[in-house]
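dumping this here so i dont lose it
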């Protein structure tokens, strides 16, 4: 079974092909949100590298968020279009799960942290278990300082990964002395997406393309601005021009 993985939840664009033998080919690039321009050539590139024809793909896996709205829309729309054209099922996975998976061998409390802009982050907590990693908390939106306070209260050594951990490094290192991941663990990986999707594909835990949805923890700027125009007295609106999902 060959799985195509599409990862666009952050500034990085990624695509990978893999199967029971592991990742066959992978592409990743940070293109300043040019997800639509980079994704199609990336998929063509990995197919050439792996010598895989489109008709050999058995399932399409995609990161459904949370993350940047534009990136997620491009990635999920592309994944759906390909799954429908190839008549294959889909698998949706969380960006936070993908980040945690890359450091699954750590014996610390693993905390993937994605920059949500507007002074907030997406996060969850995980721990190592035999054979992998287990999520301990819901996916959520938080301020860096609130997250640091909660981690301090646990009294456990923490490993924070993701672009949000790097952006707010001073908060996490000064307040709780957490260990931070490197640039290599700053973004979800398309290769990890394929690896995590493989056991689900074996168990046939698929989703029809028409039923797969993007996982947003916060409304888009467009929705917030629409509400402001409809209800100008509410005072609700984005704090800056950053995009988030």
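and the seq i came up w/
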């Amino acid at each position: 079974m060959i799985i195509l993985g599409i990862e666009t939840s952050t500034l990085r664009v990624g695509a990978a092909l893999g199967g029971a033998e592991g990742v066959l080919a992978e592409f990743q690039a940070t293109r300043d949100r040019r997800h639509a321009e980079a994704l199609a050539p990336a998929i063509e590139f990995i197919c050439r590298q792996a010598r895989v024809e489109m008709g050999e793909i058995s399932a399409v896996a995609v990161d459904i968020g949370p993350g940047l709205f534009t990136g997620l829309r491009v990635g999920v729309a592309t994944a759906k279009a390909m799954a429908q054209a190839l008549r294959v099922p889909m698998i949706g996975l969380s960006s936070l799960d993908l980040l945690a998976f890359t450091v699954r061998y750590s014996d610390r409390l693993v905390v993937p942290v994605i920059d949500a802009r507007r002074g907030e982050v997406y996060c969850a907590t995980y721990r190592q278990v035999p054979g992998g990693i287990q999520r301990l908390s819901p996916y959520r939106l938080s301020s860096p300082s609130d997250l640091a306070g909660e981690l301090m209260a646990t009294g456990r050594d923490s490993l924070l990964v993701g672009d949000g951990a790097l952006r707010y490094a001073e908060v996490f290192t000064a307040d709780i002395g957490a260990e931070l991941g490197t640039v290599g663990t700053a973004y979800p990986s398309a290769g990890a997406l394929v690896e995590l999707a493989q056991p689900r594909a074996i168990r046939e835990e698929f989703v029809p393309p028409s039923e797969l949805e993007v996982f947003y923890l916060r409304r888009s700027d467009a929705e917030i601005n629409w509400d402001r125009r409809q209800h100008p007295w509410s005072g609700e609106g984005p704090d800056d021009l950053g995009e988030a999902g």
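The two ends are 32 Å apart (CA to CA).
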